[in-house]
Amino acid sequence: MLKIDVHTHILPKEIPDWKQRFGYGGFVRLEHHKPCCARMLKDDGKFFREVEDNVWSAERRIEECDSFGVNVQVLSTVPVMFSYWAKANDGAEISKILNDGIAEIVGEFPRRFIGLGTVPMQDTTLAIRELERCKRIGLVGVQIGTNVNQLNLGEPQFFDFFKACEELSMAVFVHPWEMMGEKEMQKYWLPWLVGMPAETSRAICSLIFSGVLEKCKNLRICFAHGGGSFPYTLGRIEHGFQVRPDLCAIDNPHNPRNYLGKFWLDSLVHDAAMLDYLVKLIGAEKVALGTDYPFPLGEEIAGSLIESMPFDEATKEKLLHGAALEWLKLDKETFNYK
Questions:
Q1: How far is CA 140 from CA 172, 175, 337, in A?
Q2: DSSP letters for 40-81
Q3: N or C end of the chain, less CB within 10 A?
């Protein structure tokens, strides 16, 4: 059965020295300190993460995909590269280089990889310009963060970007980053364990309550990590909407529950009961296989949770590739499947 992984991250093997180019720091670089490995470091030398060559090598990724039975990966940058805090023109330059790298890999291996770009969300005009360029160079959508310098995605200045994604038929993948409260909960890896799920729920709620999803009915948008905490706190969110419409319904009068099935989520929930709940809540056609490859919080063997479930074959087909194809607006024949 065709298996498409919608949530994977990639970097160029060589990242430019942004600090030298732009004259200020805060950017991430790779230190290739031994064969097939590198350290991700901030300009000040602060360690962020150790990575292997599967973060940049298409050939290594294909080898691992073959071992896992993954036919196609959707490539997007590592969220720390968003750089929304940078000067807008600098952010646009970073986006261009990252996007060209992904497009080059997709062009070389078009039946194994699909590309999502990144855009400088700190400037909507520049973001739309790079979105348009992403489409021209063969990318099928973009990945964005759950907030832009702590501004919610539903803020008015971002609406034109989402409208452009809808009009250009570019898919959107929303990934948590710059987690709220991160500085206050560094111990125990809590930003990744607690902050990320909350960030994703923040993004979904913001796009619903602001009316973006109501006004952009054809926007094809997917949220990482099974929608974070949103699906599991929907009862509370809906109740709040009902009892305090003066606070929750000021920009959109429609119940948040009405938007179930109007967006996609990936399957990365790490728990059989949660995946079963997710499928019942929004339908298998809106849940797409996602692993967070190649990072440790991801699913080690892609699709293993889905395949372990007592779903019928039609449901598994939707989860393993059907939802992804609908979200990306592609068909099986693109990858030599019928």
A1: 9, 17, 19
A2: EEETT--EEEEEEGGGT-HHHHHHHHHHHT--EEEEEE-GGG
A3: C
pLDDT digits (tens, 9 = 90+) for 101-138: 999 999 999 999 999 999 999 999 999 999 999 999 99
Residue span of the structural domain in which 109 resides: 4-10+63-330
Distance CA 323, CA 9 (A): 19
In angstroms, the first-to-last Cα distance of the chain is 10
**Number of CB atoms found within 10 A of residue 36's CB:** 11
- SS3 at position 338: coil
Say whether the peptide bond before residue 310 is cis (omega within 30 degrees of 0): no
Residue 91 is part of a domain; what is its CATH number? 3.20.20.140
| Residue 252 maps to a domain | yes
Radius of gyration of the chain (CA): 19
Residue 97 within a domain:
yes
pTM (two decimals): 0.96
Partners of residue 72 on adjacent β-strands: 4
Collect all residues with Cβ–Cβ distance below 8 Å to 31 and sequence separation of at least 6. Answer: 38, 39, 41
- How many domains does one find in the chain? 1
- Within a domain: 171: yes
Q: Is residue 274 part of a domain?
A: yes
Chain centroid, CA 11 distance in Å: 15
DSSP code at position 322:
I
Summarised one tens digit per residue, pLDDT across range 9-42 is 999 999 999 999 999 989 998 989 888 899 988 7
Residues of the chain with pLDDT under 50: none
What is the DSSP code string of 32-43? EEETTEEEEEET
What is the chain's mean pLDDT, rounded? Answer: 96
